[in-house]
Amino acid sequence: MTVYPVPAFVDNYIWAITTPQSPYFDCVDPGDAEPVLQFAKARQLSLRHILLTHHHNDHIGGVATLLQSYPACEVYGPADPRIPFITKTVRPNEPIHVGECKFEIIFNPGHTATHISYYEAVRGWLFCGDTLFSGGCGRVFDGTIEELFESLQLFKALPLTTKVFAAHEYTLQNLKFAQIVEPDNKKISERIQNIKRQNIICTLPSLLKDELLINPFLRTDCKEVIHYALAHGATSNAPFEVFKLLRDNKNRFK
Length: 254
Prior knowledge:
The chain has 254 residues and is α/β, with parallel strands linked by helices. It has a domain at 2-165: Metallo-beta-lactamase, Chain A. The protein is 34% helix and 23% strand. It is built from 9 helices and 14 strands. The chain has helices at residues 33-43, 57-60, 63-69, 145-156, 171-181, 186-197, 208-214, 223-231, 239-251; strands spanning 2-8, 12-18, 24-28, 46-51, 74-77, 88-89, 96-98, 101-107, 116-120, 125-127, 132-133, 136-137, 163-165, 206-207. It has a 6-stranded mixed β-sheet, with helices on one face. Strand 9 (116-120) and strand 10 (125-127) form a beta hairpin. The N and C termini lie far apart (38 Å).
């Protein structure tokens, strides 16, 4: 099976999952229908399942139009009245079968109150919406900062080989902030240089083992990150207090 990034808007990715010899494909968070329809037409495939992580329009805005073209398509998503068209509500610890994939549902609120992720253990795929990005994490909207912190702890416990399919191309901007937090972190510098040198357009998926080395929001127990947080007003060196300070500073970072 293959996962393709389907660019949408300015920096969104809609993830399309295909199977060799199959006339069907599945997609994650289609905020815009047109790129998905173009993908389907170019490969002569029919859309079979849609997986939704949360209610924001840049993740669900294309569903209605896609269902007009593929009325038999099943739509998975969390229990949230702000998300229309769901045909199968997912729940944590109740796996779903999508084609040849068996996805575990990870409830990871914070960015939103009902945000979920889809984890495929056999292939090591994590479709995490706007909770985790390469080098960063999502903002808090209608969830809480405490929930977001705990959600990232869940991700840290996954296998190191997990492939992180985040929903936005924010990597370079995130790493600029990460470099301010840890100016002596060579892994961050190497990652930035590699992206620029190779002119990498799509930096995803990233590997969890790499995120643990470059992503400050996953490194809140590291000495250098703690030092930055305390120097910028964190009230203690507790991982959550460090995380809260980082998220607040990142909100204002340009």
